[in-house]
Amino acid sequence: MAVAKVYSAQNDINNSSVIEIESDLSRGLFSFAIVGLPDKAVAEAKDRVSAAIKNSGFDSPKSGNKKVVISLAPADIKKEGPSFDLPIALSYLLSSGEIKFDPKYKMFLGELALNGDVRKVKGVLPSVILAKKKGFREIFVPKENANEASLVDDIKVFGVNNLKEIINHFRENNSEFKKEILPWQREELNTVFDEAENDFAYIKGQNIAKRALEIAAAGGHNVLFYGPPGTGKTMLAKAFITILPDLYYEEMLDTTSIHSVAGILDGDKISKAPFRSPHHTSSHVAIVGGGVNLRPGEITLAHNGVLFLDEFPEFDRRVIESLREPLEEGKISVSRAKGTAVFPAKITLLAAMNPCPCGNYGSLKNCTCSAITIGRYQRKISGPILDRIDLIVPVEELKRKELSEEKKEISSKIIKEKIENARKFQKERFKKLGLKYSLNKDIKPKHIKEGSLIDEKAFKLLLDSTEKLSLSTRTFHRMIRVARTIADLENSEKITPSHILEALQFRGKISG
Hints:
By secondary structure, the chain is of the alpha/beta class. Helices cover 37% and strands 16% of the residues. The chain folds into three domains: 4-170, Ribosomal Protein S5, domain 2 (2-Layer Sandwich), CATH 3.30.230; 196-412, P-loop containing nucleotide triphosphate hydrolases (Rossmann fold), CATH 3.40.50; 415-505, no CATH class. It has 21 helices and 18 strands. A hairpin with a 6-residue loop joins strand 1 and strand 2. Helix 18 (445-452) packs parallel to helix 20, helix 19 runs parallel beside helix 21 (497-505) and helix 20 crosses helix 21 (497-505). Mean pLDDT is 87; it is low at 173-178 and 189-194.
C-alpha cells in the first residue's frame, strides 16, 4: 500500500484553487479520516465513497482492518461541497492497488451516489478554466456538467455517468471493458431568456425613454426612470435586455462561472446579459453579498448585465449607498469578520421610482403627499448616487390619443443592430487610440478628451453648461461619456454641440 495522489479543485468566484487529494492506507483498527479543513459535506464523503466503491464491485474501505487517511491539500483552504467524492474514491482505489493510472495531468470533479452514479455539481466551469491555466490536459466531470465544461477550449473534457465507467476507462485488459469514455464534444448549448414578449415594438410612445435606453445599451450607462405608477417604467426596463448585444466569449465564461459557483446556472451557459431584479425588501446581504461564507449578492450576479431596482427609494439606505463602488469601479468589496472578498460587479444600473410616496405628484391624479414628505422621499436618493447615474429620464403618462394610435413602433431587433454597430465603432476607436476599454462608460478622466475626440465648440458648451447647471466634476466627465456614445450611434468621429445638448437633456432633476 502506497500514498496515491489525484487532483481536484475548490471553486471560488475570484480565486479557485487546485486541491491535491492524497490517500494513505495502513494496518490497524478500522478508521476513515478526511483531513484538510473539510466542511460537513466533505466530511460526510467517507460514507458516500465507501458505499459507491462497494456497489461498483470493489472492496469497501470498511471491509477490512485498515486505517484510511484522506488528506486535502493545501490544508489551510476550506474545502466545501460534494465535488471531492469522485477524486477521493479514485485516490483510495489507486492507493489500495485496485486500479492503476497516471493522474499527473488529470483533474476530477463529481458527487457520488451510493450506487456509484456521478451526480451533477456546481462550479464546474471555473474549475475547468483553472485546470487549463495550470496545465492540466484532461478533466473528468459529471455527464450533466459536460456541456458547461466544454465551453473552455484546449482541454479534454470527459463526461462520466458512474464510478465503474471511469474505472473501466483506466483499467487495462478488463473483461467488462467495452469502450473508453470519449472526450465530450461541444453541443448546441441552452440559453434561458424569452425575448418575444418584451420587444420594444409592444411599447407605445415613450420616445424619450426609449432613446435613453438606446444610449445606455450602446455605452453601458446607468439610467434612472421617474414618473407616476403605470406609465411603463418596469416594461421599459424589461425590454432593455432585448436590445443588448450578446456577451463576448470572455464575458460569457466570466458570467457563467459566477452563476455556476452560486449554484443558480439555468441551462449550460449564459450568452446573453443577465437581468437581475431583486425586490425592494431584499436584505443588504442579499443585494451586496456576504454571509457566513462570503457569497456573492445580486450586484455580482448582474455582472456583465443589468441590475434593475424597481421602487428605488424603497430599498434600504445601506443598499442604495453600497452602489457607489460598483457603479464607479465595476467591483464590490465585502468585508466580514472571517475575511474580505472583492466580487466583480460590472453592471448597468436601471432604477425606477415614483415622484412621491403616493406616486401622483405631477400627474393628472391628486397627490396626497405634503411638500415635506415629497422632499424626504426624493432625498432618499443621495447626491453621490445621482452623480453616478448618467441618464435621469421622466416617464410620463400617455395621452388617450397616443394609446389609441395605430402607429408601428420600432422593434428591438432594429435597435439592437444599431447598438451593435455603435459598439463596434467604439471598439475600433479605442484600438486606434491604444486605449484598453470596451465601453464608453469605462473611460477614465485622464483619457476622456483624448478618447472622445471632442471639438472645441462642444467642449466650451459643456464647460458653460456645467457652470450654469452647477454640475459636479464627476457629472461633467459622465456627460462627455454619454455624448461620446450619442456620437457613436451616429458614427461621428467627433463630439459636436448637438451631442452635448442631447446628453444634457438627460440631466434633469427628479420632480413631478
